[in-house]
Amino acid sequence: MENEIFKALADPSRRTLLDLLHASDGRTLNDLCTPLQMSRFGVMKHLNILEEAGLITTRKVGREKLHYLNAVPIRQIYDRWVSKYAEPWAIELTSLKNELERETTMENKPRHVNRIAIKATPEQIWQALTDPAKTSKFWFNCSIRSDWEIGSPFELWNPQGKKQVEGTILDLNRPHRLTVSWKFLSFPHTAGDSPSRMTWEIDPHAELQGVTLVTVVHDEFEQALNTAAILENGVPIVLSGMKTFLETGATLAGD
Fold this sequence. Notes:
Layout: H1 2-10, H2 12-23, H3 29-36, H4 40-52, E1 56-61, E2 64-69, H5 71-86, E3 111-118, H6 122-130, H7 132-135, E4 143-145, E5 153-157, E6 163-173, E7 177-184, E8 196-204, E9 212-219, H8 225-248
Family: Belongs to the AHA1 family.
Domain HTH arsR-type: 1-89
Protein name: Polyketide cyclase
């Protein structure tokens, strides 16, 4: 996969497409054609390569197909090739991630989308997501607490016994979908934020046996912009950590 990522990033037109999505995410094919002064077919070809490398994701909204920057592969490249060599000088690379995913509706609501492929079954991913002993391996050392019923509380606790996040289970379909409300308790500047929403979509890969696509959507954060900024940085790290833990048994920080 890393070879595909580097190959995708090697072309200046594809880097321009990523820049365009970074500036304004959730764009249609027509939106992306004009700045490049390229045919629809040419832009589609570049977008397909970026999607195959996992650098963008797409979602259908009505008749439109919207394209979003996916932060997770960038974070993985950073973790492997940048952080251990140039952490103090390369922090700005992590800014290449989702800003606002905008629907083509009158409401124009923002949304962040991150996706990763993990060599594990949906059941294994669901267990990792809901088992306190496993979440602590990749979710910033926090363990998760809930009885996993719709309407029940959802919480994250740190090793010192302090609750970091609280929310409610809004929707649940084991092992494929989990939606929770989300409110940080551990950051003073999020105290005034209203609860936002986080959805985990866990689906078998259409072509690769034994591989599951995990998509995390954060939305309804119009009144929680500080929360959104934290999760924009944090979710790619959580997903990268989950992948590393499930595929190797290790953590990003090491054992």
